[in-house]
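Hey, can you fold this one?
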Amino acid sequence: MDKILDKIKGDFFAIMAPGFYTLIILMTIAVSTIDNGSYFEWEKISKSFDCGNKYWPMILLGIFLSYLLGNFLRAIPVRIADKYCKKLFSWTSKNNDLVKIYYQEDFPYHTALSNLLENLRKNGFPEEIFYVPLPETVHTVYNYFKAVICSESPGAFSFTQALEARVRLFAGMFWSAFFGFVTCISLLYIEIFIKNIEVHGFVICLGVASLIIAGLLGGQLPRVRGQEVEYVFYSYLAFIAKSENKLLSGVKPINLPEKEN
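Sure. Predicted structure:
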């Protein structure tokens, strides 16, 4: 039951966080058309939160809209955000050969799986019980890995789902922050060059925050996606090694003390 709740909490946050941020952006767009954007004064923003506290159905509506928008962002394939993040942030992976693969190769990273398996074999992992699948079939086999882990090791599968939820959170926040940055730039252009009114600090702060979020989370998206693949791969190898009753010859088993009843 606890594992199910953890899965629900992980997915819920991965949906709600991007959805709520997108809702803020949409509210910014809507409010910017009212009274020449004067609503962006900080005291009026504070009053809007007081209004939400008094009229609690608006809070429920905000939660519903956030969840709806979050599901819309979740429906966008992760590979699209991953593709653009690789192009934008590949320069961050220069000092690590394995991570560099995550920024250069398509999911689920056939070359990375080959390198990981080779490192394990150098430490005694038996060669005869597993071979890396062909590049054109690696995605199908990767899904098979997850199905086997789900069937044979629910604990490990629960953790892989948490890693997948983190990937979706990063992808969703990248899209919502990118949308927020473009929106704020557009609003500033309208305020300065079209409406010829004073630039409001709220729009600038939101734009800067969006840029930072897109850079931090988008820049790490290929890396965390690679970490998900690593754990799935290790979990499957551990399962088949246990099934074959073969351990790494270079690693001594650790005898843990038994728990007292």
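The CA atoms of residues 145 and 236 lie 6 Å apart. Let me know if you want another pass with a different chain boundary.
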